[in-house]
């Protein structure tokens, strides 16, 4: 029975590993004796880790909790550039497997005390000699602390084969360093009451091993046939969605482009609608016309300012006029009445998200060319956005009525619609 630590001792051990990961940012992390994956569930949120692997001899226990390592809905809706692959294996730490070699960090949290002393020797050979990680964190109970644990008789857990003193742990660690080319730093978690630190040490003692730089791998085990050793059973593997995946990047970029193209189209159509209404309205004074023109420009500036959070006001005002002119010219040259042509350079300049995702204007064009949901102009320099969706729906409804044999009484409205379309074209 352990005393009440705040936070609990197992959380302090896991926090020690998390803090190490934050400082050193290891891309590949392996947790030996991962059990119910509680440490891995914390590490998966640290995206400096690109490969997160767990190993445990009890596959049944791993399977009960492994789904908690799966991506959540927000990982798919808002994927980041960070990559993360999670793998879980069933196997013994005393056996070799080539898939677990060369990690940046290997953790063994309260594991070795569950091994026999003979297996501890094999553990040292496999972890330090065969896996050869850049860093290893090993924690184990400190038996010198046991007298401070109320009601404890014997070991802290019925499955423990031994519990080392600080001197015994240090002896084992220094031997492993000497044999396999590592250095070690001793620390721990679980502070004793005031006045007991020197006499009993930490409740859980920790060794942080770092591999020494060597000119050869003469102490590394495995040899040339290391890649042929596969002892573990793969239980679970999942790749988190990432913008490094071109398919995911195209999907996210396409959605972003369509969103902002639709907003720009709506603003342009509002402006055009205002101009048409103005041509039919009573003659305005010069002052009134200038006020409306300013208001219209302000509406477009609002759209651009939503995208350009980092631009200065002077630069934004200058660029907005240029973009809006390009946008207007594009519509004047567009022969179709059913679409609005939004230049890619306007989208790329206005929306930081689009420019960040694509990287360059040329790359934006290339990525959109393969997107079936985005329609580009013939020259590939603009996105075509349908501006008569409602008319199309009405035509489909009309076709359905004609197919059913029913002809509306107000047939003459179609001629009026054609006349209106001609009138719009002349404007």
Topology:
Layout: H1 9-24, E1 28-32, H2 38-43, E2 51-56, H3 59-65, H4 73-77, E3 85-90, E4 105-109, H5 117-131, E5 135-141, H6 166-180, E6 182-189, H7 197-200, E7 204-211, E8 233-239, H8 246-280, H9 286-307, H10 313-332, E9 339-343, H11 344-350, H12 352-358, H13 361-369, E10 382-386, H14 389-403, H15 413-426
Helix pairs in contact: 5-6, 8-9, 8-12, 9-10, 11-12, 12-13
Structure description:
- Residues 292-318 and 406-427 have low confidence and may be disordered.
- The protein is 46% helix and 15% strand.
- 27% of the residues are buried.
- It is built from 15 helices and 10 strands.
- Helix 2 links the parallel strand 1 and strand 2.
- The chain folds into 2 domains: 9-239, Vaccinia Virus protein VP39 (Rossmann fold); 246-404, no CATH class.
- The chain is an alpha/beta fold and 427 residues long.
- The protein has helices at 9-24, 38-43, 59-65, 73-77, 117-131, 166-180, 197-200, 246-280, 286-307, 313-332, 344-350, 352-358, 361-369, 389-403, 413-426; strands at 28-32, 51-56, 85-90, 105-109, 135-141, 182-189, 204-211, 233-239, 339-343, 382-386.
- It starts with 8 loop residues before the first helix and ends with a helix.
Number of domains: 2
Major β-sheet, in short? 8 strands, mixed
Find the count of extended strands (DSSP E, 2+ residues).
Answer: 10
CATH architecture group name of the largest domain: 3-Layer(aba) Sandwich
The geometry reads as elongated
Amino-to-carboxy terminus distance: 86 Å
Q: Which ranges are low-confidence, i.e. pLDDT below 50, for 5 or more consecutive residues?
A: 292-318, 406-427
The CATH homologous superfamily of the largest domain is named Vaccinia Virus protein VP39
Q: List the helices and strands in order.
A: HEHEHHEEHEHEHEEHHHEHHHEHH
Query: Whole-number average pLDDT?
Result: 79
Rg, rounded, reads: 34 Å
């Amino acid at each position: 029975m352990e005393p009440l630590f705040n936070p609990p001792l197992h959380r302090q051990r896991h926090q020690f590993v998390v803090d190490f990961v934050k400082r050193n940012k290891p891309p590949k992390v392996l947790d030996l004796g991962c059990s119910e994956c509680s440490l891995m569930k914390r590490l998966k949120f640290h995206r400096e880790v690109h490969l997160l692997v767990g190993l445990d001899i009890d596959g049944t226990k791993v399977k009960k909790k492994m789904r908690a390592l799966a991506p959540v809905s927000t990982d798919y809706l808002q994927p980041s550039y960070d990559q993360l692959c999670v793998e879980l294996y069933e196997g013994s730490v005393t056996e070799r497997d080539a898939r677990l070699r060369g990690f940046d960090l290997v953790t063994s949290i309260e594991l070795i005390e569950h091994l026999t002393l003979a297996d501890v020797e094999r553990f040292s050979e496999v972890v330090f000699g065969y896996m050869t990680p850049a860093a290893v964190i090993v924690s184990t109970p400190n038996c010198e602390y046991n007298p401070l644990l109320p009601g404890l008789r014997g070991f802290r857990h019925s499955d423990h084969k031994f519990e080392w003193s600080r001197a015994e742990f240090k002896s084992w660690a220094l031997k492993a360093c000497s044999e396999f080319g590592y250095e070690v730093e001793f620390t721990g978690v679980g502070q004793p009451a005031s006045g007991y630190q020197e006499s009993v040490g930490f409740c859980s003692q920790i060794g942080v091993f770092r591999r020494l730089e060597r000119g050869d791998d003469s102490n590394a085990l495995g040899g040339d046939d290391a890649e042929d050793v596969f002892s573990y059973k793969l239980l679970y593997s999942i790749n988190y969605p990432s913008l490094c995946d071109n398919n995911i990047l195209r999907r996210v970029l396409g959605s972003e482009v369509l969103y902002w193209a639709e907003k720009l189209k709506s603003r342009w159509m509002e402006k055009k609608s205002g101009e048409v209404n103005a041509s039919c309205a009573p003659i305005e004074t010069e002052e009134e016309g200038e006020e409306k023109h300013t208001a219209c420009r302000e509406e477009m500036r609002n759209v651009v300012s939503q995208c350009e959070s980092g631009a200065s006001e002077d630069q934004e005002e200058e660029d907005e006029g240029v973009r809006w002119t390009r946008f207007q010219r594009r519509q004047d040259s567009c022969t179709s009445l059913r679409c609005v042509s939004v230049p890619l350079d306007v989208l790329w300049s206005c929306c930081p998200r689009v420019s960040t995702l694509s990287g360059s204007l040329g790359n934006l064009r290339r990525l959109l060319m393969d997107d079936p949901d985005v329609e580009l102009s013939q020259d590939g320099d603009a996105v075509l956005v349908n501006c008569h969706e409602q008319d199309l729906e009405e035509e489909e409804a009309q076709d359905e009525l004609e197919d059913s044999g029913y002809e509306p009484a107000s047939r003459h409205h179609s001629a009026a619609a054609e006349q209106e379309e001609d009138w719009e074209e002349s404007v």
